[in-house]
Design goal:
single chain; about 130 residues; alpha+beta; four-stranded mixed beta sheet; about 15% strand; disordered C terminus; ribonuclease P activity; hydrolase
Amino acid sequence: MLPTENRLRRREDFATAVRRGRRAGRPLLVVHLRSGATDPHAAGEMVPPTRAGFVVSKAIGNAVVRNKVQRRLRHLVRDRLDRLPAGSLVVVRALPGAGDAEYDALARDLDAALQRLLRTPGRDPGGGAP
């Protein structure tokens, strides 16, 4: 389970991560990352912890399947919190295939999405157009 300080709960925080953050899509999930976002609700000048939230809609399956997917994603993100910049907001949205996916497939998609989001912006390692 995610520690309390790492949970994203407020609607405004979800909206900030989705609307103002970067996005990386994979076949099983979409990850939105707002790096180094400051929490206007936090007191003092302390850097807030990285917080994560999850969106698992009814398109995934029934309540049992949705809860299983959400538990798996929470566990996967918890193990990867130290890779994310402090103060980041992360929203992981499960896509319909996630209900039938194995744990390892979810982990691969999450790792690939996070790797893409954490690359330095402005660099094109694929040798883009001049």
